[in-house]
Amino acid sequence: MRHVLLLLCLSFLACDEPSRGASPEPAGDLVPAAPAAPQGVARAGSQEELADELDAVAKELDPGAAAALQRRWQGKRVRWTVTRVPALCGSAESCYVQPFATARRSETSAHGWLPRVALAPGEFARLEEVCAKRSVCSVTLEGVIDRLVVSDEEPTSVHLSLVHVEKDR
User: Fold this and answer.
1) How far apart are CA 120 and CA 69, in angstroms?
2) CA torsion 50→112→156→17, rounded to 10°?
3) N or C: which end of the chain has fewer CB within 10 A?
4) Which residues is 160 bridged to in the sheet?
5) CA-CA distance, 67 to 134, in Å (whole number)?
6) Which helix (H) or strand (E) holds 131?
7) pTM score of the predicted model
8) If DSSP codes are grouped into helix, strand and coil, which group holds residue 91?
């Protein structure tokens, strides 16, 4: 089961990066990235709430539903407890996390997504300290959703910026 999950995670990573020579913007209804402000940014909900909204949009026939979801979440501050696996987050420059602290939620959602995390300066060292030598670490992060892609043609893509490590669990 772990091998299947790892392969699934790696395939999402491969889909998230644009191909050489391809347009850097994914297809679909992409709302331009909102500037991320460290203070005074409205808060969004939990990753559970985002997953529920993604599932609801997938059932909608309204083509504007995805863009409305993007507007509601993009540019908002979130505080999520996620799972950090060293194979997915080995450096500050390339860090993805599993969006839930347990595998149960990811098995019930129709969407697979691995948030890309842009850690604030010095926060990767803090992440390493909090996770110590554990191969899998549940950690609370706070940051801003600076890019959210919801499309029928592309995998869901979530990028968090200005991310700070809150605490371990």
Assistant:
1) 26
2) 140
3) N
4) 117, 145
5) 38
6) helix 123-131
7) 0.69
8) coil
